[in-house]
Design a protein that fits this description.
The protein is mainly α. It contains seven helices and no strands. The termini are far apart. It has one domain. The longest helix is centred in the middle third of the chain and has 30 residues, at 81-110. Helix 3 (58-74) crosses helix 4 and helix 4 (81-110) packs across helix 6 (139-149). Residues 1-23 form the signal peptide. Keywords: Signal.
Length: 169
């Protein structure tokens, strides 16, 4: 009699397991997930009105890949540990990259001790230090910073694991 009760309890538990896993599709929110969500939101806002085809800009690539990496890390229960590790590494590097570019732009706008002022004349009549204060980091500059910080390499490693393709218009 007791083995039948145990079997019935195990069968009921196994039968309820898929329903419970389907009901909870999101993982609990953590500090890292909030930080990564803000990073992806930042890049999504930058890429909002940019075309997806025929050739996407760096902002579009970063925004869409960030969103997919975030979903695979925090909203999909079937993500493999290998994919999750690459997604987490990519999102961490994206967060550091975002902070670096914002820091450089803030430095240029408000000038901290890191900004070196020169007395070279520039075409608009100011000095080179004054000219750089008003210009944010260019797209080419952002690409070089991203490559140096390992964002591009982390993107490639993550994209190879998940077969990421950019959505077309």
């Amino acid at each position: 009699m007791l083995p039948n009760i145990v079997r019935a309890a195990v069968l009921i538990a196994l039968w309820a397991l898929p329903a419970a896993s389907l009901a909870a599709t999101d993982l609990p929110e953590t500090a890292a997930s909030r930080i990564h969500a803000k990073t992806c939101s930042h890049f999504a806002n930058r890429a909002r009105f940019q075309p997806r085809s025929p050739s996407a800009t760096l902002e579009v690539l970063l925004a869409e890949s960030c969103a997919q990496a975030y979903r695979s890390l925090y909203h999909q229960l079937d993500t493999s540990p290998y994919e999750a590790r690459h997604a987490a590494d990519y999102l961490d590097r994206m967060t550091a990259f975002k902070a670096t570019v914002i820091s450089i732009n803030m430095d240029r706008m408000f000038g901290t001790t890191r900004t070196r002022r020169t007395q070279l004349k520039v075409p608009l009549g100011g000095t080179a230090g004054e000219a750089s204060k008003t210009h944010p980091v260019t797209t080419a500059g952002e690409y070089l910073i991203a490559r140096q910080m390992g964002v591009i390499g982390a993107y490639r490693a993550w994209a190879d694991v998940v077969d990421f393709e950019l959505a077309q218009d």
